[in-house]
Design a protein that fits this description.
With 519 residues, the chain is α+β, with helices and mostly antiparallel strands. It is 44% helix and 18% strand. The strands form four sheets. Strands 8-5-6-7-18-9-10-17-14-15-12-11 form a twelve-stranded mixed beta sheet. A two-stranded antiparallel sheet has the order 1-2. α4 runs antiparallel to α5 and α4 packs antiparallel against α6.
Length: 519
């Protein structure tokens, strides 16, 4: 929150909470930018990144309110104001009582009282800071407890699946043992019959042996047929294999070196607050690769990494490794277009395909960063029509998934066929002058709307349904319809209108683009 300070005629009060400064919880502290606020408001506003001045938004790297010096001149002014202020009879009597009590105290001892009071006030401020840190730490611990309970439930479910798979395997093993036993008996009988054929002496023995052989042959053929039908049991093998693979991957991810924890971090540094120590420990053990769930929950560590521009979506394909930044724009996580650039050394990565999988076709938001004269002018947000071919193509060109992107393309034309009808045209990712922009998807000619209130609407430029698009910046005549509308600008349409008024429309460039992640 920005607090104006011009014309401040109440120097005795904090301009954030509007409470009077005092010698205890609300002592005045000077900021390097020259503004003054009370201990409590500064303490409440300190984050891991430091403190942002409520008046001028200057960033100050501090860890505790005591890093800002006390404004003793303000305190002296407050004492003077109190001494000259009209007081009630009760307040006057109380002040006289205090002065009477101090008449017998020497100046040196009185100075010691003032010093001790100041020390106690500082100690109270430090206590408040530690209590604030403990509160944040308590919240982090509760979040971790919740996650561990969720993990425990998943592990219990995995153990239960393993028990079920083991039960199936035991049953299958029992069946195999039983069938093996039957096969061994049958094989023994066949061997005995074979011996009998070699020792028969009479016709009666021959007929008896042949009958026995026929009977045993039928039994063993049936046994072989049963084995072929019964084994292997598809459900048993499939279940056991899937559970084994899941457990193997889980155990691999859970494996860690014992003892490699706090010994690597200087936790005894007094200038380091509780939450910073926690973040250092988590940073040490946290994997550099993030999951969609970690991105979605946005823990304090992930949030800090996003704000520090350290989270990158990575795609590996025939074009090599490409990266897309994930940033925070107006409280929303934004996935920028893939570009060919080295991966930052301190980056936390996530698979680009996993991030794109989060997009919901029915409510996708895209954005274009327009700029001219060498500077960005606005973050134009566009809502896509539900799952239409042109909308899907627009997403591909905003994210750069197929190698082509709107980045560095131009608004190459402005059309104005009537005073109330105006649009700008862009999207030529090939030539940047209107002679390119081949479609990335086939069959783009279906599923669109016609609109008569088309200010800010996007529609294909021309009849070819290429990647080129037009944005309407002024209204149509009443009753006139704009066909094939597939998107609409939902924020910063004024930037598009300013671009349309640019004397050289081809100077307007898409400096960046991407999509908003629906978290």
């Amino acid at each position: 929150m920005h607090i104006p300070t011009e014309g401040n005629d109440m120097p005795e009060e904090c301009r954030v909470c509007f409470c009077h400064y005092n010698a205890n919880l609300k002592r005045p502290h000077n900021l390097p930018c020259g503004h003054t606020f009370c201990s409590q408001c500064i303490s409440n506003g300190i984050t891991i990144g430091g403190f942002s001045c409520p008046s001028c938004c200057s960033q100050h790297r501090v860890k505790a309110v005591t890093d800002f010096p006390i404004n003793f001149n303000i305190e002296a002014l407050i004492r003077k104001l109190k001494s000259t202020k009209l007081t009630s009879p009760e307040e006057a009597a109380l002040e006289r009582s205090r002065r009477d009590c101090r008449k017998g105290i020497g100046k040196a001892l009185m100075f010691q009282v003032v010093v001790e009071s100041s020390n106690i006030g500082s100690l109270i401020t430090n206590c408040e800071e530690v209590l604030f840190q403990l509160g944040k730490y308590h919240g982090q611990l509760r979040n971790w407890k919740t996650r561990h309970k969720e993990l425990q439930e998943k592990l219990d479910d995995l153990v239960e699946q393993n028990r079920a798979a083991l039960k199936l395997l035991e049953q299958e093993d029992t069946n195999v043992v039983a069938m093996t036993s039957q096969g061994e008996v049958g094989k023994k009988q066949l061997r005995e019959i074979l011996v009998n054929f070699n020792t028969v002496k009479t016709e009666e023995e021959v007929h008896t042996t042949i009958d026995r052989a026929d009977e045993c042959t039928v039994e063993m053929e049936e046994w072989i047929e049963r084995c072929d039908k019964l084994f292997p049991d598809v459900n048993t093998i499939h279940t056991a294999g899937k559970v084994q693979e899941t457990i193997r991957k889980t155990l691999k991810e859970m494996t860690m070196e014992t003892g490699a924890t706090a010994a690597l971090i200087g936790l005894g540094v007094s200038s380091c607050c509780i939450i910073e120590k926690v973040m250092e420990i988590v940073e040490e053990i946290s994997p550099k690769h993030l999951t969609v769930e970690e991105l979605r929950t946005r823990s304090e560590l992930v949030e800090g990494s996003v704000k520090a521009d350290q989270v990158v979506a990575v795609q590996q394909d025939k074009k090599g490794e490409r990266c897309a930044r994930i940033t925070l724009q107006v409280g929303q996580l934004c996935l920028h277009s893939l570009v060919q650039q080295p991966l930052p050394a301190d980056a936390r990565t996530i698979q680009h395909s996993d991030v794109v999988g989060m997009l919901v076709p029915s409510s996708t938001l895209a954005f274009l960063e327009l700029g001219w004269s060498g500077s960005k002018r606005g973050h134009v947000t566009i809502r896509l029509a539900p799952d239409t071919p042109l909308a899907r193509q627009f997403v591909l060109l905003c994210t750069g998934q197929q190698g082509h992107s709107f980045i560095n393309t131009k608004l190459f034309d402005r059309r104005n066929h009537h005073p109330s009808w105006e649009c700008v045209i862009g999207g030529d990712y090939e030539e940047k002058d209107g002679n390119g922009g081949a479609p990335l998807l086939p069959d783009l000619n279906w599923g669109y709307q016609s609109s008569g209130r088309a200010v800010g609407s996007l529609f294909p430029a021309g009849s070819s349904h290429s990647a080129q698009f037009a944005i309407l910046t002024r209204t149509l005549h009443d009753g006139q319809l704009m066909p094939d509308v597939f998107e609409e600008v939902v924020s910063e349409l004024n930037v598009v209108r300013e671009a349309a008024n640019n004397s050289n429309i081809t100077d307007v460039t898409v400096m960046d683009c991407g999509v908003v992640l629906p978290l």
